[in-house]
Specification:
Length: 604
């Protein structure tokens, strides 16, 4: 199309496309934006003009402004326009779906600043069910970002970050930037590395978090630090992960755990106000072991009950071999009660069984408490009396179904924890308007890695053991025959959980070199290796390190809650795909041979 494009010249916009109301009727206005929709009715042409604030209906009338009307013939969706005109109250029905729905603008002049190719997908089909494929939308991210929903999310994110800054600034924290070109940091993921040209053969690592540096700011005497920090982790991606993400990172000196909890509560309480949610000043706390026992998860969703109930005691003398075997090996038998679902069909219980098998469970047993009788997959093997006893211990009432899993503790927790969530989704038990915060405390210090039969840091290697467990920790590290006791050591580590999502985590740190040395030893690191990786930090610990602790909160995760989305890419302006690619820029990409040569790298 051969169109003469207009220039902006000295024209100034008077209002945004979301701003005009009845009070503006009679005003002469200038609006600028994109064509969201155009309808041609012969002598009248209607244009919905959109900018980041909203949409305004513009009318071009052949009689009163023939030039503008004629010019409008050629325009299409996403053309960039300026219009001059007068605000008029709409005749007949007002559009209640638009904030500007009471008025329209009768254009006297139309400027076409730019054309647009036919969009690769329809933007205005905004209902999320109708969206084009995500890959296509990521390739044309600048188009997708024009959608009101994403405009809202990205602005909400900006507000959240501002609220966080406001909060910490008001509390005397100092914002300190730490480098992106760093040395390997220990959050347990793979590093992204950057080759050094000047020091051929050497590499920087991008920070998995600013963990060590924020601790060093405490050693440096800053007392209260925060940063909106970019972190990079080269992990196998899951739906809700991105290779780079942002976190609020904070650290403070001379504090106990409660003092850090207060800052976590304070910050989240301040941020949640953005969506009108009032959290209690002090949130509930739950130890990790209680969370695992009651919910089978270290991030329990407290918007509904359906807790796990332990049936092991009632079955301790059972001669049903699979159960007896589990108990003899220190495992357990637990259940959840699904209210009002004694009518579960065979197909449904089979489906749920398949579901728990994904989490390692061997089978799913069930009891249904129907009006007239109990039925159970265990009736034959346990006898009706035992089944009735189990139903009563589970607290099931008439009409309920009981779902039972037996196995190793970790398997029972994982399977029933996941089943609890799945059943809640299927039965629609989750109150979508509720927000339930929780601080989970006393995480285990180590996780056992079965493959290598070694212990890895559950949080990171700078996390302090609980005072009560320091002796246990020392014994487990120093006496090789007691190494397995590491699994019992609890740490001063904690998480913020909101509606079943882990939104933040942190710990009180080790501030004494002796304990830090022991911890590296516990993790199977020789003193030489520890020195090689963290020598600078071990040195720093010896120059007067104050007791300190802190936390980091995921900005994306928090924004997902603020925006009510389960898709992390909905709260990032330029996210990567689940396979870690940027489809818009087509990265990662190749580099020139000359660049590789300069870096001393050859690709084999
Ligand atoms: N560095 C930790 C993380 O990124 C948080 C912390 O311990 O403060 O998860």
């Amino acid at each position: 199309m051969d169109l003469m494009l207009d220039t902006l010249g000295s024209l100034e916009r008077t209002h945004t496309c979301g701003e005009l109301r009845k009070e503006n009727v009679g005003n002469d206005v200038v609006l600028m934006g994109w064509v969201a929709k155009k309808r041609d009715f012969g002598p009248l042409t209607f244009i919905d003009l959109r900018d980041r604030d909203g949409v305004t209906q513009v009318v071009l009338n052949e009689k009163t402004s023939p030039d503008a009307h004629a010019k409008a013939k050629d325009i299409r969706g996403e053309f960039v326009l300026g219009i001059k005109g007068t605000v008029v109250e709409r005749e007949g029905t007002h559009n209640a779906r638009l904030a500007t729905g009471d008025i329209e603008v009768h254009a006297t002049e139309l400027l076409i600043f730019n054309t647009a190719k036919v969009p690769p997908f329809e933007l205005e089909k905004a209902g999320s069910q109708n969206l084009a494929s995500e890959d296509l939308r990521l390739k044309y991210r600048y188009m997708d970002l024009r959608r009101p929903q994403l405009q809202h999310n990205i602005r909400m994110r900006a507000k959240a970050v501002r609220a966080i800054r406001e909060y910490f600034d008001g509390r005397g924290f100092i914002e300190i930037e730490t480098p992106i070109l760093l040395k390997s940091t220990p959050e347990g993921a793979r590093d992204f590395v950057v080759p050094s040209r000047i020091h051929t053969g050497k590499f920087f690592a991008l920070p998995q978090s600013p963990q060590i540096l924020k601790q060093i700011t405490m050693i440096s005497g800053f007392d209260k630090y925060f940063q909106i920090a970019r972190c990079f982790r080269d992990e196998d991606l899951r739906a809700d992960r991105q290779p780079e993400f942002t976190q609020l990172d904070m650290e403070m000196s001379f504090v106990n755990r409660e003092q850090v909890y207060r800052e976590m509560e304070g910050m989240f309480n301040h941020v949640m106000k953005l969506i009108g949610v009032e959290f209690p000043a002090e949130w509930p706390r739950m130890t990790h072991s209680e969370a695992m026992r009651r919910y089978g998860s270290d991030k329990p969703d407290l918007r509904f009950a359906m807790e796990l109930i332990d049936l092991s005691a009632e079955l301790k003398d059972t001669d049903f071999a699979p159960f007896a075997d589990v108990l003899a090996k220190g495992g357990e038998i637990k259940c959840i009660v699904v209210k009002g679902r004694s009518d579960y069909s065979r197909k449904q219980t089979d489906e749920l069984q398949e579901y728990v098998k994904r989490y390692g469970a061997g089978a799913l047993a069930w009891i249904k408490v129907a009006d007239d009788a109990l039925t159970s997959s265990l009736a034959k093997v346990l006898g009706e009396e035992k089944v009735a006893e189990l139903a009563s211990v589970a607290g099931a009432e008439k009409g309920d179904a009981i779902l039972i899993v037996a196995g190793r503790r970790s398997v029972v927790a994982a399977a029933l924890g996941a089943l609890r969530l799945e059943v809640a989704r299927r039965e629609d038990l989750i109150d979508r308007t509720a927000y339930k915060p929780l601080i989970v405390t006393e995480f285990p210090m180590f996780e056992h890695d079965e493959e290598s039969d070694s212990y890895v840091a559950a949080h990171h290697p700078f996390t302090s053991p609980m005072d009560e467990d320091v002796e246990l920790f020392k014994t487990a590290v120093n006496d090789p025959s007691q190494h397995h006791l590491l699994g019992q050591v609890r740490a001063k580590a904690y998480d913020v959980v909101i509606n079943g999502y882990e939104c933040a985590g942190g710990s009180i740190r080790i501030h004494q070199k002796e304990i830090q040395d022991l911890n590296f030893k516990a993790l199977g690191m020789t003193p030489e290796k520890a020195r090689e990786r963290f020598g600078f930090f071990l040195d720093a610990l010896e120059y007067g390190t104050p007791p300190h602790g802190g936390f980091a909160a995921g900005i994306e995760r928090t924004c997902m809650i603020l925006c009510g989305t389960e898709n992390i890419r909905d709260v990032m302006a330029f996210p990567k795909t689940a396979s870690a690619q940027d489809l818009m820029m087509d990265s990662p990409g190749e580099v020139d041979d000359s660049q590789l040569k300069e870096l001393g790298i050859s690709i084999g």
